[in-house]
Amino acid sequence: MLSFDPDKVSLPAGHYINGVHQHGAGNSLLVKRPSDGKPAAELAEADASLVDEAVTLADRAVKESGWASCPPRQRGAVLRRWADLIAADSELPRLEALGSTRPIHDVIQHEIPFTAEAIRFYAECADKFSGDVLPTRAASLGMLVPEPYGVIGAITPWNFPLSMASWKCGPALAAGNAVVLKPSELTPFSTVRMAELATEAGLPAGVLNIVQGSGAVTGSALVAHPLVRKVSFTGSTQTGARIMSDAAFNGMKPVTLELGGKSPQLVFDDAGDIDEVAGRILRGFTANGGQACVAGTRLIVQRGIAPQLIETLTRLCQNFRPGVTWDETSRYAPLIDARQAAKVQQVIRAACQQGGEILVGGERFAGTGEGYFWQPTLLAGVSQDNPAVQEEIFGPVLTVQIFDDEEEGLALASHPTYGLCSGVHTKSIDHALRAMRGIAAGTVWINRYGRSGDFIVPTGGFQGSGIGKDLGRQAFEACQRYKSVLIDF
Question: Which of 45, 51, 343, 483 is buried most deeply by CB count within 10 Å?
Fold first, then answer.
């Protein structure tokens, strides 16, 4: 039985530094459970002095433990043990479900396996990718030699706490770095347990440290610290811009930024079975309550198929039922908090004031108390400059736009700010390939919507959706700096 009592779960509401739990003495932050709005714990925010301690100890640990210089296969073995512990742990799923928007069923079936497999993937990268011998004149030997940065500062969002942590920690640790990670102050619990398991697996104390707190205080101190040589962040475009600026003014350190999205789902008349296509579109904008940067929240459908597809989606949207995340029967995620619910409501209201029409949904589910479960919502009659089309809502809201020919559809699919992901639904290889070329997005999914377990496929955006890549060998290589060497015989 997967269901559990949230009041009987012990919460590690503190920092984890040098293999030891610390509660600190900073500002107190109240953490609430997304499912019912009840207080879960009080979090002592890490100030600049505690961040300095965490980073300094990480820098010392990665050097003195030999983590950076040990045979790469040894690093891989520790990471594989870590992945096994994550997959087998009974406490981790409950911490994730209680403290985040992820229902326990989804955590067990998807989140835990995905997190463990991501770490296993990077364990194998440790001794698979290296530098290069370069073609030079006969009396010389040219080489490109990779080295770890040292300490990487990682900041993860609240929507997928565990899997996002694996994206940051896996490649950084496999490449021989230490990591100081700040999870979202809204979802602080499961990442600490994840770090405990890393220590149990044999990761030297201090090589992975967790500091808790807000972005404005803890995150800013982490980005600015002189011993943090690289920063990896997933979150909003606005915060990413500030991090990029802070990194430039505090050591010219490189950044990997996976930021916001407003991704189109482009559906041609020849897309095929309506129910199958509608199911893909539905999952694309309702997964995790729409709280995903990759959410496909703009439906752009060709006129011939539009009435039938919209009717099917409207019907499917009415089948959702809210439920707390610690109930094994729950399948639909709450919004993270009251502030996020207010934002969703505000954008919907503004969209309707500019001509938008609610076809279904448009409000919270009744009878859910202080849990903010939002009904899947379809908004039709929206122009390209409508707020619901332009702004990342981070809720289960799908705008509907209709096009007549391919050129018009591709024009509607473009976005002035974002370029993270896109979906194309068609049986025509010509439509598919022209759309793949014509849509400015870091990822294009054709006849699917959403990531798979193929960790070799990187993810990352264009324009305001980010810089660099998570996942793939690209993420591993981005955790190393490359030294050019030329030897004369």
Answer: 51
234-259 confidence digits (pLDDT tens)? 999 999 999 999 999 999 999 999 99
Radius of gyration in angstroms for the set of CA atoms belonging to the chain, rounded to a whole number: 23
Catalytic residue among 125, 169, 293, 317: 293
Phi/psi at 370 (nearest 5 deg)? Answer: -90, 10
Type of residue found at 323: G
Provide the CATH number for the domain around residue 409. Answer: 3.40.309.10
Mean of pLDDT values over 39-66: 97
Q: Output the CA angle 283-287-289, nearest 5 degrees.
A: 130
Cα-Cα-Cα-Cα dihedral sign, residues 344, 347, 351, 353: positive
The reported pLDDT for the residue numbered 23 is: 87
Task: Name the nearest CA neighbour of 364 among 409, 334, 384.
Answer: 334
Tokens of 183: 């999870």
For 232, the enclosing helix (H) or strand (E) is strand 228-234
SS3 107: helix
399: part of which helix (H) or strand (E)? strand 397-403
Tell whether 181 and 300 lie within a shared domain: no
Confidence at residue 87, expressed as pLDDT on a 0 to 100 scale:
98
Parallel, antiparallel, or unpaired: how do β-strands 418-419 and 462-463 relate? antiparallel
Residues 302, 180: one domain? no
What burial letters (b/e) apply to 324-344, b meaning 16+ CB within 10 Å? bbbbeebebbbbbbeebbebb
Of 191, 197, 200, 146, the C-alpha closest to 168 is 191
Q: Are 310 and 401 in contact (CB under 8 A)?
A: no
Residue 316 inside a domain? The answer is yes
Active site residue 293: yes
Q: 148-196 pLDDT, tens per residue?
A: 999 999 999 999 999 999 999 999 999 999 999 999 999 999 999 999 9
**436/317 same-domain check:** yes
Rounded distance between C-alpha atoms, residue 149 and residue 172, angstroms: 9
Q: Is 452 exposed, middle or buried (0-12, 13-18, 19+ CB in 10 A)?
A: exposed
Can you give the residue range of the structural domain that contains 411? 264-454
Q: Dihedral of the CA atoms 386, 390, 394, 397 (nearest 10)?
A: 40
d(CA 36, CA 325): 9
Separation of alpha carbons 402 and 417, rounded Å: 21
Catalytic residue among 45, 111, 258, 406: 258
